[in-house]
Design a protein that fits this description.
By secondary structure, the chain is an alpha+beta fold. It is built from 5 helices and 8 strands, in the order ααββαβββββαβα. The strands form 2 sheets. Strands 2-1-4-3 form a 4-stranded mixed beta sheet, with no helix packed on it.
């Protein structure tokens, strides 16, 4: 029995090796270089042209301005003008070259920009030339004189004058009118 067992094991091993060799060679020999096919070359040159997205009538333009110095954002929306109907993204980029287009659909376009300044939504009350004055801006950074009152700083209480010398930040001109009225009493 051991003699026959050894004989059958060797025959089985030879059959397995021949089978694997046949499969390997068949696979290896069946791999060939692709033939020059004009269809493949033509397919490379046939690029499907997808029409560019164009703005529809009534589309909204959303402008977002980020002001770096005060970390505020101002968002403005408007409906496109008739001259922009049918405009593509690349055409709008040329018209609005100071803005980055972040979203472009036929119904809505989002444009953003950053400005290294403060936004126009800041007001403060200060003292200039001896008078109580309303400024647009932020004390010590940048300000534009809006209105100089006839209230002399020397006539104010000491603590009020000290606050105004540093600049009292307010939210709008309406708040200024209330404070102004309180200073004259």
């Amino acid at each position: 029995m051991p003699k026959n067992f050894l004989k059958y094991t060797v025959i089985l091993a030879v059959i397995i090796v021949i089978g694997f060799s046949y499969g390997y060679l068949k696979t290896f020999l069946s791999i060939t270089e692709p033939k020059e096919n004009n269809d493949v070359k033509n397919a490379e040159h046939e690029v499907i042209q997808i029409p560019e997205i164009r703005l529809k009538a009534g589309a909204r333009l959303i402008y977002t301005t980020y002001y770096i110095k005060c970390n505020d954002e101002i968002i403005e929306e408007k409906i496109i003008d008739e001259k922009l109907i049918g405009c593509t993204k690349s055409q709008l980029e040329q018209l609005e070259n100071d803005w980055e287009i972040t979203n472009f659909t036929p119904e809505e376009v989002s444009l953003t920009r950053q400005i290294n300044d403060i936004c126009p939504n800041h007001y403060f009350i200060g003292i200039q030339d001896g008078y109580v004055t309303l400024f647009q801006g932020i004390p010590g950074i940048k300000s534009i004189l809006i209105e100089q009152t006839d209230i002399l700083a020397d006539t104010l209480r000491e603590d009020d004058r000290l606050i105004l010398e540093k600049g009292l930040i307010i939210k709008d001109e309406q708040e200024f009118l209330k404070i102004r009225e309180g200073l004259t009493k």
